Amino acid sequence: MPATVLVLVETINDYLPILERQGFHLILAPTPAERAQAIATHGSRIDAVLTRGPLGLYAEEIDALPALKIICVIGAGYEQVDLQAASDRGLTVTNGAGVNASSVADHAMALLLALVRDIPRCDAAVRRGEWPKVMRPSLAGKRLGILGLGAVGMAIARRAGQGFDMQISYHNRQVRSDVPYAFCSTPTELARASDFLVVATPGGIGSKHLVNRPVLDALGPDGFIVNIARASVIATADLISALEQRRIAGAALDVFDHEPQVPDALKTLGNVILTPHVAGLSPEATQGTVELVGKNLVAFFSGEPVLTPLALPPRLSNQRMH
């Protein structure tokens, strides 16, 4: 009997035949109402859940899925997946770290170029019949700080260093001995050493509000910040006040605290560029992520090790065991 997969992700429909061809039965539930309905109606026969970081999977949902064996997260982030509940049930959890790194890095560089060169406002001005001669900084030779030097951070560093001759510094949980870039021991030190700061670290408790007022003040009135990671990494209130008071020059954001809601203060500022959490979305990245999910599912249900397991916290109790 084929395994049944509950699909909570809303952006991968064109690539779901990859999983169907591998013999999986899919239940699509991309909205909150459909999700609740699917769990209530089909919960007893759902073997696997396909989700992404912001959509997550909660403890009460895991409890309502007695047949659940594996959770597959698209992309690197898994901040709303209850890993403790998964551990207590003895579940396997996988993610897709690195698969969409090229797409995210491309978007980060696009945002940085658009922000520093003021492309959206120039475009709007020309469409209004205006012809402003705007003097804006160049990227060449500037200092780029990358917060989080994983697959995405490395892809950004390569583009910035090789394509724009930028000087790369980074802050990471561990120093990397395999890179030629300068390590900074704190986010504040990194910001002080940067003209542009790109946030590329995973979300979650460990990185919450790593970028706060001291970091933004260290970046300074000529500094720009780009976030293609998770909104939680930046203290949004501190960012808004820094932008309003011109204590930093500008920000480009692809992620927000309560998506799809975006603070009105960000919408009204002229030194901000906003995109709707699309950095990781490309045909190439989406196909790659679904293919990786398929490989993990096939391996798991064949009794083989999964390709990209997440380390789970120790079990707290057996009370969630079924």
Descriptive overview:
This protein has 322 residues and is α/β, with parallel strands linked by helices. The protein folds into 2 domains: 4-99 and 283-301, NAD(P)-binding Rossmann-like Domain (Rossmann fold), CATH 3.40.50; 101-274, NAD(P)-binding Rossmann-like Domain (Rossmann fold), CATH 3.40.50. Helix content is 35%, strand content 15%. It has 12 helices and 12 strands. It has helices spanning 17-21, 32-42, 59-63, 83-89, 101-116, 119-127, 151-164, 187-192, 213-219, 236-244, 264-268, 283-301; strands at residues 4-7, 25-28, 48-52, 70-74, 92-94, 143-147, 167-171, 182-183, 196-199, 224-227, 250-253, 272-274. It has a 7-stranded parallel beta sheet. The longest helix is centred in the last third of the chain and has 19 residues, at 283-301. The protein is elongated.
pLDDT average, as an integer?
95
Biggest sheet layout? 7 strands, parallel
- The appropriate CATH architecture of the largest domain is 3-Layer(aba) Sandwich
Q: Which structural class best describes the helix and strand composition?
A: alpha/beta
CATH homologous superfamily grouping of the largest domain: NAD(P)-binding Rossmann-like Domain
Number of helices: 12
Ranges where pLDDT stays below 50 over 5 or more residues in a row are: none
Number of domains: 2
Instruction: Report the portion of residues in β strands.
Output: 5-15%
Predict the CATH topology of the largest domain. Rossmann fold
How helix-rich are the residues, as a percent range?
25-40%
Count of distinct strands: 12
